[in-house]
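Subject: Protein record for review, amino acid sequence with backbone structure tokens
Category: Structural biology, sequence-to-fold work with a learned token vocabulary.
Format: Residues in single-letter code; tokens as whole numbers, each standing for a residue.
Body of memo: The sequence and its backbone structure tokens, given next.
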Amino acid sequence: MKSILSQSYDTRIRPPSYDDNGNNGPVIIDVQCYVRSMSNIDFTRMEYSVQLTFRQFWRDPRLAYEKMYYGQKVPKFLIITQKDLIWTPDTFFMNEKQAHRHAIDKLNLMIRIHSDGTVVYSERLSLTLSCAMYLQRYPMDVQTCALLLASYAFTTDDIVYQWKQDIPIELHPMLNTSLPNFSLDPPETTICTSRTTTGEYSCVQTVFRLKRMFRSVCRSNMAFMRINGICTRYTGCPKTMIVRFAV
């Protein structure tokens, strides 16, 4: 790594990126999320929490090391755990309210550098994200919550984000068990590039559609009635709900 990260490597300068005509263009950042859990869907605060492994992929030709081995066996990749050693994009989550990186037993961060200069940047994050929720159709409501990310400082002249084509969003097999009152539809991914007074900024988003499970509403109301001793035997949903459905 010392020979790769020579004195000429400047972490403040983004990698060069050339098109087929040899013109210098923006760095393409492929992004991918592995959603580990989703919880704390809070209608009062209009927020939800998610834990995910967030991966970013880009190519930095300055880090290519294949030619350094002169006919010897080239390692498939090298791993570093100090992100300050190389240039990394200034990605931020646009609707984030709180966030933290996991650091037990060590910082959950992995940077893999391949021989052609391709960089894989992976970290485990817990996020609390804002989500505008609408309860007019409760308890048959469907909430649409987004996760948006973009570059904070670089315009589309320097950085362009796109979802990784093969698997942009991957869900933990047991994810729905962390959502006892909702079922989760397959996530949708879109581009949300926007323009402000300081320029055009690349943005990507994924949308989670959360459908409330009506049976869980009935069960929770039954338990509430019994605990408070309002009735000793209750086998249906609240009268207000029954009247609403009868209208």
Confidence is low (pLDDT under 50) at residues 221-235, 243-247.
